[in-house]
Fold this protein.
Amino acid sequence: MDINQLNCFISVAQTLNFSEAARRNYVSQSTVSRYISDLEKEFGVQLFTRSHRDVLITNEGKTLLPYAIEIVDTLKNAKTVIKQMHDGGQGKITLGCDVTSLSFPSKCISDFSDKYPGITVDVRQIEDADRSQAIIGGDYDFCFMPRDMVPENSGIEVLVTHYESLSVVTAKKHKFSGRKSISLQEIANEKLLLLSETVSPIVYMEIMDLLRTFHISPIIESAFDDLISMYVAVSSGIGVSVIPQSLASFTSQDYTDILPIEDADTSIAYVMAWKKDIANPAAKLFMEGVKKYAKGEDNVYGL
């Protein structure tokens, strides 16, 4: 059984005329007769009764008709969707974001959604401890995270997207309120509210290394597993936080101040990582948009 046989069967059933069915399907009448005969042999029943004057559909033919129409329509829909996906009209991509990776994918998604409104973008926080599996396991098309968080794996490619500097976030009522920047030594005696090492290992490690470099013994008041809880604690004046600049900008400046660190290079490299030979047509379109904002196409490399 093939789609041409079903199309001809549907045409004969609807018109009860082999000549008209042949015209509709751009084949000869003998081809239509052969297709119907082949279907009747496959099902082992007579689908039509034919005479010199009339063509009548049998009860078996009436039973087959809705199924044949459904099969043909399903195949047509599949072809349409696949073509639209290939042309950028429809599809879906799934993005995984480390909790500290927000601003860069946000602007990429915004542009992409404007350009391809028919493509669904599903954004999730990466929670899988096995980063390699998260990237190549099929759950995500792309993962955004600090570069040092990407596992060494020959099946992974990455694109350096941007560099993040660390900032200090304080409550509006804090003594540092109104400042334009801050030095690390000034927070030596402050209670620190940080994202936990479990949630953001690279950022946590960078902060600890930075403080050790300046011979600061941190007073860690709390380490949080979620950004909202940490923000509430900071805005309440319990302590100050050190987080990437763009992540800090996601907090409400009605309740907090964001102070760049002025006396240290605090930049952290961020990347977009994906499985080599990615097949999703929609994902390939998204990659083109990401490269528009990233450091450069020459920053694509394998691990």
